[in-house]
Amino acid sequence: MVPSPLALLLALGAATAALAEPLRFVDCGSKDGSIQEVNVSPCPTQPCQLLKGTSYSINVTFASKIESQGSKARVYGEMLHVDIPFPIPEPDGCKSGIQCPIQKGHSYSYLNKLPVKSEYPSIKLIVKWELVDDQDQMLFCWKIPVQITS
């Protein structure tokens, strides 16, 4: 028996949904926006197991409380309460799923990649992800625990 295209689509959708469960996160100072959901894919359990040499998809749904011409992401690895800057390929939020200018009261899906380089140490840490508006105010800030593994 050949499965129908609809059955295949539903199975694929279920598999994708299992990989992109909303994460438990800590809001670390969202002032000009409110986070509705954070997804890291694949991250089926927490802390997220980040495999070296792999790139992870980040999707943050948030509502803006302000108008802004643009936005910029800053990502850190937090160890012993020290923020270590973590480079990402595209820090410009307007090139990461957000249609700019940002409108007050609108919801946005911010999409980006988190590359985990092979040379990173195998360590437990906190990923802290900020998106700031054109006045350097926090649209969102969230933290999740991760384990970098080989």
TrEMBL record:
User: Where in or outside the cell is it found?
Assistant: Secreted
Give any single GO term for biological process: intracellular cholesterol transport
Q: Name one GO molecular function term.
A: cholesterol binding
User: What domain of life does the native source organism fall in?
Assistant: Eukaryota
| Stored InterPro entries | Ig_E-set, ML_dom, ML_Npc2-like, NPC2-like
Coarse class of the protein's main subcellular location: secreted
Q: Which GO terms describe its cellular component?
A: extracellular region
Give start-end of the signal peptide: 1-20
Q: What keywords are assigned to this protein?
A: Disulfide bond, Secreted, Signal
Q: Which Gene3D superfamilies match?
A: 2.60.40.770
MD-2-related lipid-recognition domain spans which residues?
25-146
Q: Has keyword Signal?
A: yes
Similarity section = Belongs to the NPC2 family.
Instruction: Provide the protein name.
Output: NPC intracellular cholesterol transporter 2
* Upper lineage: Eukaryota, Metazoa, Chordata, Craniata, Vertebrata
Q: Which gene encodes it?
A: Npc2
